Amino acid sequence: MEFIRFKNVTKQYKNGVVALYDLNLSIEKGDFCFIIGGSGSGKSTFTKLLYREEKPTKGEIVLGGLKVNKLRNSNVYKLRRKLGIVFQDYRLLPKSNVYENVAFALEVMGESKKDIRPKVLKAIELVGLKSKLRDYPDNLSGGEQQRVAIARAIVNNPKLLICDEPTGNLDPAMSLEIVELLDKINKKVGTTVIMVTHDKEIVNHMKKHVIALKDGHLFKDYKEGEYIDEVL
Hints:
Helix content is 32%, strand content 27%. It is α/β, with parallel strands linked by helices. It has a domain at 85-157. The strands form two sheets. It has a six-stranded mixed beta sheet, sandwiched between helices. It has a four-stranded antiparallel beta sheet with strand order 2-1-4-5, covered by helices on one side.
């Protein structure tokens, strides 16, 4: 079942830079899809359009039945409640421990402490940090901090998990661990996962659906299991 559709999407910024040109693509519900491409390929713009930090100059974006580009600003929160977002730089609250960082995502949505606790514990256990509940970010490795960020992103059971270069600050071994964790979440929970990366080794190891962008254009849409050898 189609979950995400970009139809003739172009994005031109106010400074005249065109980041995406007439982009057409689709991603199925429950898919794990890598978005790859070199610097300036349009990867970051693609994700910003998905969670409505940016709007397309023209074209249509549909996510889970919602026409993202048609949403009023006052209704963008309805879209974002369906999403979990993981960034390269973790974005944890430095003075809050692991439990508090994950719980924060539900607190801002107004959930009660009684409802929050079991969801937070479940998310933390899923990312393998049950023994680190009371630890603070400064006491965690980079990989552990990213696991906390992932737990925070999935605690509200999102329909879509967007990961923007989540392994960019990690060594190759830890990068693979993080991607395999995302794969576990995709398979166990059924969350659709979109991961932006420039790491072709990981992409080829995982053998997933891959969308390659180049200079704002769709370069190629690789089916699951295809080997990526092009220089982007």
